[in-house]
Amino acid sequence: MSVVHDPSSPKEDELLRLAxxxxxxxxSNNTVPASELPAMIKSxxxxxxxxxxxxxxxxxxxxxxxIAVKRSVTPEYIVCLEDGKKLKMLKRYLRSxxxxxxxxxxxxxxxxxxYPMVAPNxxxxxxxxxxxxxxxxxxxPAKSRRRG
Length: 148
Fold this sequence. Notes:
Layout: H1 10-29, H2 37-50, H3 59-62, E1 78-79, E2 86-87, H4 91-98, H5 102-108, H6 120-132
Antiparallel strand pairs: 1-2
Helix pairs in contact: 1-2
């Protein structure tokens, strides 16, 4: 039994060469009856030929957001578009659960660059707390100590 191929096609020649190398490597390390070799060659050849032909479906194209983007930001929380979870801070959640950066997240869901990663009221609360303890101000001049 022989594998039929178009000798004028460089791709077909390359597939046949790769299939024969793969089968040869497999047979050199495993016991295979001679009667099974043609079927194995055909199977490997067909698999190699189909690798580039299937259209790739992007996960983001198939996936729908858990909630409408317009409704995902509220004063008290931000809703994760991946799973619908309500959060005050989204950045750490995305990194730990989805291994995504805010930039990856914004790109995946086609969000603007200024899409918040923190709930607005929580950001204001943290800002107020930082101001209250003096963050962001110049340090007061050091008092000089006199020895005496």
